[in-house]
Amino acid sequence: MTVVRYQISVRAALWLTAAFFFCSCGDRNGGTDDTRDKIIITSDVLNESFHGNGVQWGGYDVLNEWTGTATLTDDDWNKLFTRVRFMRPPIVRIMTADGWNYLIDGNYDPLKSNDVLVKILDFCEEEGITVIFGEWGHKGGSSIDQTWLENSASFLEWLVKTKGYTCIKYYNMVNEPNGSWSSIAGNYDLWVDLISRFSAVLTEKDIASGISITGPDIAVWNNGLLSWITDTDYRLGEKIKVYDIHTYPTEATVRDGSYSEMIRAYREEAPAGKEMFMTEFGFKYAAASALGIENEAREDNDPFASDDSNMMVYDSFYAVDVADALMQIMLAGYSGTILWDLDDAMYNIDGGSSTLLKRWGFWNILGSEKFGNAEDEEIRPWFYTASLMSRYFPAGTRLLDIDLPNKKGLRAIAGVNEGKYTIAIVNSNYVDYTLSLSMEEGVSLNGLKVYRYISGDGAQYTGAVDANGFAFPSETGETIDLSDNKSFNVDMKAQSFTLYTNMD
Q: Quick one: which of 155, 144, 219 has its CA closest to 184?
């Protein structure tokens, strides 16, 4: 697919700022129109120490079959690292498998991971990125292969002790165990047995104290799997340090806010005092819906897209929907979210040298080398909002609750970190909203950068970017005075996103 999009360069942003400011931001001096609907940043704390919004990374395990080389080129690694460094994800999730990472001709050899996984973990260690690490599935069918279990734990031990990775803080054993597609195939008792045994082996290897096992890592579509949370607490207790789920909602449930109700039910079911992550998030569209029909048509017309793809990653509206969902997850009390996923080139389907990709990424880093389309390596629109929601809600941020008017598709979230603030607002609906912004414990926010994104047709959007294609503020050095009950006018265009921050 050829990607054509309209982006505003840094130079163009300078002359566009004035006109864009008045249509999107309102009164620069902090005055307010009392007839406007009100967004109020409350003093209620949702999360004292948010872990952040990150992304699924890793994979690239068919590189040799595709390119004849065991790793990416230096240019591709540098491009990846430059982009991830801008995104500044506080957390990433990396999943492995024995055949990909530590078995050669059936023999245990962790050096197999040197060409790809180690390079990614080196980067995470250097950049201070926390890693949720894990293995996609178990071996042994309806029982547990003890040799596999020992190798799996030994691989983690090698990474932590021999390689010295302190960035690996969480372990996620078996992806989506409730699913028929999982190695567990929905066998809850088998999953409990596996977690118990794996936990014991980590203790034997003296690495349990530094690694928190997450679970149950189930894929949920409604409230029908709450028992996986309650039973896990009952059966495994302190063996599970952090709870997590996966969700792939439709755009309709996110835009109307019903998604919030579902994920809040799972968060409230988790034990008091324990954190909960959303360790996979993406959108899947109802088959009979307009987007579902369009998605399938695009998959059929793309020789490299598998039927496990979201082809809307090429469209500008997807950036708005992702920002909306991230805010709902944060407002529901989750400690972090992993977006699915970074790069199309990470995963294929059907195994071997298949070129049917799981197209979900911000780009395809092998667009030119393998897939005959250099433009596919370009940054897609949704990186704009996702990177800002990652970069400006760093680990340790205190999240503040928001009082919002009852308007479809309107969400907002605020965070404080080391005395600096970020406020993000999204309108995923198709009508404009006129609003005012205030804060219960008012402060004057100085030195603000203001980022604005408005979805357009197809891949087109209005939003300033720099020479790398990274989001660039439309205004800098701004002040919003929210002290002494002052308010600030905000006009949110349909399908738009605005972020204010004085964080670095």
A: 144
Number of domains in the chain: 2
Same domain, residue pair 382 and 402: no
| 445-481 tens-digit pLDDT | 999 999 999 999 999 999 999 999 999 999 999 999 9
Is the pLDDT at 3 greater than 90? The verdict is no
Between CA 273 and CA 94 the distance in angstroms is: 26
- Residue 483: pLDDT band (50, 70, 90) is very high
On whether both 337 and 209 belong to a single domain, the answer is: yes
In the Cβ-directed half-sphere of 115, how many Cα atoms lie within 13 Å? 15
Joined tokens for residue 124? 């995470």
For residue range 408-417, list pLDDT tens digits in order: 999 999 999 9
E-strand ranges in 174-257 read: 212-220, 242-247
Same domain, 483 and 378: no
d(CA 289, CA 292): 5
The identity of residue 388, as a single letter, is L
Q: What CATH number should be reported for the domain holding residue 402?
A: 2.60.40.1180
Using the predicted structure, report yes or no on whether residue 15 has a pLDDT greater than 70: no
Contact partners, residue 117, CB within 8 Å, separation at least 6: 58, 94, 96, 101
Q: Name which of 145, 132, 266 is nearest 198 in CA terms.
A: 145
182 is in which domain, residue-wise?
52-391
Residue 23 has pLDDT above 80, yes or no: no
Please say whether the beta carbons of 328 and 411 come within 8 A: yes
pLDDT at position 31 is 60
| Pairwise CA distance, residues 134 & 176, whole Å | 12
Which pairing describes strands 420-427 and 410-417: parallel, antiparallel, or unpaired? Answer: antiparallel
Q: Name the residue type at position 247.
A: T
CA atoms within 13 A on the CB side of 445: 28
173 and 293 in a common domain: yes
Cα-flanking dihedrals φ and ψ of residue 472, to 5°? -130, 140
Instruction: For residues 283 and 427, state if they share a domain.
Output: no
- Domain stop point among 359, 391, 423: 391
Can you tell me which residue has the tokens 């932590």? 160
For residue 293, is it within any domain? Answer: yes
Shared domain for 276 and 382, answered yes or no, is yes
Judge if 189 and 127 occupy the same domain. Answer: yes
Looking at the chain, the whole-number percentage of residues with pLDDT higher than 70 is 94
Counting DSSP H helices and E strands in the chain, the numbers are 13, 20
What is the token pair recorded at 435? 């609003």
Question: Last residue of some domain: 391, 418, 446?
Answer: 391
pTM for this predicted structure: 0.94
- H/E stretch holding 453 reads strand 444-455
Task: Please indicate, yes or no, whether residues 329 and 425 belong to a single structural domain of this protein.
Answer: no
pLDDT tens digit sequence for 279-293:
999 999 999 999 999
Question: Where is 162: in which H helix or E strand?
Answer: none
Q: Which amino acid type is present at position 264?
A: R
Task: Pick the closest to residue 194 from 174, 178, 179, 220 (CA basis).
Answer: 174
